[in-house]
Amino acid sequence: QLQFVESGGGLVQSGGSLRLSCDTSGLHFGYYPLNWHRQAPDNERESVASISNLGQRTAYAESVKGRFIISRDNVKESVYLQINNLRPDDTAVYYCNAVQRFGVDGVAVFPYWGRGTQVTVSP
């Protein structure tokens, strides 16, 4: 059964850091690029980071470049997002999903999404 289980979110002050994790199951993990997405209240879900299937390439949205670091462990079948220098506009629910091709414009392969993990950044 396909599952994405995100964790690691929380309430932090501006300038703080968090490390998000996404544990997966039921997926040919090493086959797919993976993206982290986020959705802020009243906004559409947006992709913020992408990592190729073997982890050799990464890409980021301009709004997070230099602050977010995506990584993956193909043995543990997990993907991670280190987020540094957090800002209030990073407040959102963060999700992971497999994408059809590498890049922050990659389209999610599966219509199924996990529950996400809430990141809230106070001024």
Describe this protein's structure.
This protein is mostly beta strands and 123 residues long. It is 0% helix and 46% strand. The strands form two sheets. It has a six-stranded mixed β-sheet, with no helix packed on it. The termini are far apart. The mean pLDDT is 96.
Oligomeric form of this entry? Answer: single chain
| Structural class by SSE content | mainly beta
Number of alpha- plus pi-helical segments: 0
Rg computed from alpha carbons, rounded to a whole number of angstroms: 13 Å
Helical content stands at under 10%
The strands making up the biggest β-sheet line up spatially as 2-10-9-4-5-6
| Strand count | 10
Question: What's the pLDDT, averaged over the residues?
Answer: 96
Q: What gap, in angstroms, lies between the N and C termini?
A: 40 Å
Spans where pLDDT lies below 50 across 5 or more residues: none
Main beta sheet: strand number and arrangement?
Answer: 6 strands, mixed
What best-fitting shape do the alpha-carbon axes yield? Answer: globular
- How much of the sequence lies in strands comes to over 45%
What's the SSE pattern? EEEEEEEEEE
